[in-house]
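pipeline/complex-builder :: batch 7 item 3
reading input block
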Amino acid sequence: MIYIIFLIFIGGAVTTYLVGKISSILRDIVFLSTIIVPAVLFFTEINIGQIVNISVAGLQLQWGITYFGYIFALIVTGLGVMAAIYAIPAMKGKKNLNFFYSNFIITIMAMMGILFSRDLISFFIFWEIMTWSSYLMVVYQGNDVQKIGIKYFVFSAVGAYAMLMAIVITYSLTGSMMIDSLVAAFPGFDFTLQLLIPILFLIGFGVKSAMMPLHVWAPGAYSHAPMAYTSVFSGALSKMGIYGMIIVMVSLVAYIPEGHWFREIIAWLGGITAIGGTLWAVMQDDAKKMLAYSSVAQLGYIIVGIGIGTELAMLASLFMAVMHGLFKGTLFMVVGAVEKQTGTTNFTEVTGLIRKMPWTFLAALMSIIALAGIPPLGGFVGKWMLYESLISSNHYMLVIAVFFSSTAAFLYCYKFLFGFFLGQEEKEWEHVKEAPAMMVIPMIIMAIGTFVLGTFPGLILNPIDAGMQELGFVATQGKYWEMSMLFNEWGNVILLQPILYGIMAVFVFFFVFLTIKGFKKTRYVTTKDISSSGEIPLEHENLTYSQNFFQPFYRAVEPVMKRQIDKYYDEFGRGMEAFFDFVRRIYTGNGQTYALYVVIFMVLLLIFKDFIFGL
Amino acid sequence: MEFTLYTLLGMIVTIVLAFVVGMTYMGLSRKIIARIQNRKGPPVYQNFIDVAKLYSKTTSINHGFMQHVGPAFLMVASIMALMIVPVLNGEQWFGNLNFSGDLIFLLYIMVFGPLGMALGAGQTGNSNSAIGVTRGLSQMVGFEIPWVMALVALMIQFNTTSIVDLLNIQAESGTWLMFSSPFAFIAAVLAMLGMFRYSPFDIVGAPTELASGPVSENGGKYLFTMMSSSSIFAFVKLVLYVDIFMGGASNLVMLLVKTFAIYLIPMLYGAVSPRYRTEQAIRYFWGWPAFFGLLAIIYAVVF
């Protein structure tokens, strides 16, 4: 059955491309079924723990899904199906669609492949397929290919080489490519290798999950890919880095004797990522860039949890990984919808869409509340568990850092909603209509998902718990969570159901009160009909407030913002260029010079011959 | 069934109490500030008159759905926070939902209202409202830091995140937390200055520059709901401080005395201060208040 899933993916990718040359409707159908059918097969036919062995060219490959991989497979298939449905109307009218669709399928296949791989060879191959297909998507629209695409590719390549090195070292030591045998043999390695292998792996995974200082590719790449793809890119693809990271941190790093400081460093990198990502997100005027930085920040929280590595922290991380897939996927879809309907994603250009795109606004509102971590939506559960785990595992400064980042996130949350949907309604955008139903429905479904998980987190904590037990954690149900309850180490409890009902009751009561009281007398007036400081604004006066939106905040945090890792990479790049330039000068193209080099080399060889050959 | 009925009745009584006390305190503060500035000032019950007037007025306009539900969001935050915070020690009438949430939940539910309100203000299209909101959110990032530091210090000192547990600890040891963890108290009180938005931190409303900021464009039923909500919210914050740092209160009289004592701090500080610029306000909270928060954490770790 595992083969069939991959055969469908590959066949679907090829068929989509070929059929697209004949008929576009047929192509859409093939594309959708290629995404949906394997997803259905995966949930109905695949048994967890089922393993197939393949032998290719003398190499043993092993595929099978684990309880732990299952959690991420939920994100990939779920988000993949939603984004695929969304993609069809969203991409309508773009060029090279056959290529886009088949590439989309290949990305989903590569991610599933990573989750299925039980050996490092197929893991690496699928990892590279994923990198390639996402790179092609980043350059798909053809803007700034040089700058953005190359940056993404260079960082991915560095990560891949690091990973490849780790794999080769593993093979030379154990003679096996299985992940399980690496885990089993790891305690026997000497200390340098015990440190080196995890670091190399973490570089590879850190690039994909945009951990600082390896994050610089993310804002550009996320914002340049088509939005239908970016929701998968940020929601699911970046989680592959988290998936790998968890395996490394839990299975390998736990054996390092001084593993403690190693974990601290990872956790603090996550914390810095969260703060930096948030501050930069606040400063962005482009919605795509803002969400990209926000993704970086959110992945920072997840990395913090993995770095801490206690049971509650791991629960928090995995839960946040699922939640982030849901709400960030939705938000990128919202941006895509706005872009499709208005042609721009800049907050300083678009305003006042709430009455034109109410459903999109609703989806955005719910996802933003989830992102901000406000109860009763799902983001709160993850945040709460993360704080509790940080406090009870004595990471006091880290909890302040995470809290700062999460409070500052309210700023960009508001900016997102205000920038697009609220504020003055301008003539320029009067013609805008709600996005097509096929785009709105996936967004709404996912927004409802965040709502359900906020009150019944047990639905998703259940598979997470199974996955964690497989990684060697004890069962946490009843200790840290029930279907709709949360506990911390000290026995404090959050009862989510009474909270939800309380919120609903109060909200409905006042909503009804506000609506009924003087219902007939209240009429709607436009945004020009306001008491702007006692003066009536004229029709042509521009009252839109979107430039320098958080200027006072920016002034307060300016000293921090001046430091930027990009600059150092650029410096490094320039230094390398100068070095290569120097190297180039050695090759003068003059035969005489080359002869001189040979003579100099011989002389040096004669002088140092004792030293070199030890004679 | 009887239990549910009692709980519901208790909730309603709590809400009414919070509303009345909050309104009275606001009236008192207007009077006191007026006397400090050598004015006669409005009567103490002026706020009740205002609210009654707003309720009886017809609201003839609204600016769309988000502005319409904004005040309801605000109410949700105020009332849910009130349900979580224990009003009196061990009193069954005010049991409410005290055991359903803890301090971290409280921190987050308290943000729910301002965000909803901010969205409502955004839809009116008044640029002063939006400016006020950006200022308010920025200021919140400022004062939340020392406030959270103080709370984290308490959490690690007493190994609990529950307000009820903190109350019990104070009852058992016989001392108030403001004496047993003084730095946390100082940091929390300084953060409170920002939370209550009296001068010098009244940058959100800023009557002279922003024409009352986010609440402008709201009148009648909307302003009525907002005013009621803010009086309940003020009460919640005061009771929270009393619960955490002053051992709670065993009867209503003690509650009023203690809450009013706390209330005097931001009010009197505000009565003699001019207004900060936004970035000054943020930096203020990241200066001495954050330093005391840090001290509190060190104190909690060492002792």
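note: Residues 2-302 of chain B form one domain.
queue -> next item
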